[in-house]
Design a protein that fits this description.
single chain, mainly alpha, elongated, 90 residues, 76% helix, Spore coat protein
Amino acid sequence: MATTKRSTNRPPAEALVAGDRDLLELMIQVGQNYQQTNRCDQELFTMLALDAKGLTNRQLTPENAAALLSNAAQGVNAKLAAMDASWTQH
C-alpha cells in the first residue's frame, strides 16, 4: 500500500486557519479605517460647501436647504434647456 508523504514546505492546516483569520482581521480593520476616512472627508466637504454658501457652523435650516436645492434645480434646468436648444438647431 502506498503512503502519501506530506510535503515539508506546507504549513499545517491549523496554521492556515490562523493566517486566514489574521488576514481577515486585517481586511476588516482596513475597511473600518476606510469608512472612518470617508466620514471625515464627507464632514469636511459638507463644511466647505456650507461655508461657500455663507452658512457657517453647519447652520443649515430647512429654508436654507430648500433654497440651495431650488438654486441647484434651476441651474440644472437651464443647462438642460440650453442642451435641448442646441440639439434642435442641428
